[in-house]
Amino acid sequence: MQAWLCENPTGVDALTWKELPTPQPKAGEVLIEIRAASLNFPDLLIVQNKYQIKPPLPFVPGSEYAGVVQAVGEGVKHLKVGQHVACLSGTGGFGTHTIAPAALCMPLPAGFPPVDAAAFIMIYATSWHALMDRAQLKAGETVLVLGAAGGVGTAAIQIAKAAGARVIAAASTDEKCALCTSIGADASINYSRQNLRDEIKVLTDGKGPDVVYDPVGGDFTEPAFRSIAWRGRYLVVGFASGPIPSLPLNLTLLKGASIVGVFWGDFARREPQANAAMMAELAGWYAQGKIKPVIDRTMPMAELKAAYAHMGSRGVMGKLVMVNEPAP
């Protein structure tokens, strides 16, 4: 097998493409031939030693991938050789093969292509857990999505619309705003040239959004929270802009509003049955055409460093997916 190896987490430039021995699965594990792997923000942080999870060195980055089971370890009952799966295991995806815990593998129904599957679990699980579980979103409510053209943002738009909500998408360019409306957003705000608070006021007749979905953090958090509706729920999803913002807590009192943390990874670990039911429902929504990952582009696995550079340019809309050509 071949893989991008991180032996010293000083950044993307330290990654090297290496020939490695193909491992064999132990009890509870499977060997997966990787067909596609998506690039996520944590994949950048982890090779810079800035992520909260620090795997032992050396490691292969790539948190989310899809492929075909090549071998199963002892005790694995729900997967078999030749089965197509998607997996989000945190590492291992940027190569030709990987060992994955069988419990983290999602069996794929027929007709679920590997590129979509590799871009599915993280964004839809995060957005469903945020909107449907943590925010208890109801039909007819208004959702403001910040960073709406990114992976989790596009997933949030689709899930909110499928739940019957009205969606306002906020993004940094007209092109990104146009993408958001093309996948279902009812209105958009270009916050690089429009005043966020003013536009929210106009688009909600002064009421404000019932739910704010924020994977960005930074400078827009406080103005978005100041705009929230009475009894609104502010979803803290992540900090893609870098800075972790602070909020004056008197705002929660004045708005009767909630600040709600969203940590899908720990939800999946602590509440595995609820997570499995959620993933089954999401797979059904995909089959019904209600949700579909927005793919910015696919790139050969060998071009991973160029893909990281593209992601760092903030130009990605939806998900960036690395692909391996299947063996002849």
Automatic annotation (TrEMBL):
PROSITE patterns: QOR_ZETA_CRYSTAL. It holds the Pfam family ADH_N. Keywords: Oxidoreductase. It is an enzyme of class 1 (oxidoreductase). Coiled coil: none annotated. Its EC number is 1.-.-.-. Residues 11-322 form the Enoyl reductase (ER) domain. GO terms for molecular function: oxidoreductase activity. Gene3D superfamilies: Medium-chain alcohol dehydrogenases, catalytic domain (3.90.180.10), NAD(P)-binding Rossmann-like Domain (3.40.50.720). This is NADPH:quinone oxidoreductase family protein. It comes from Polaromonas jejuensis.
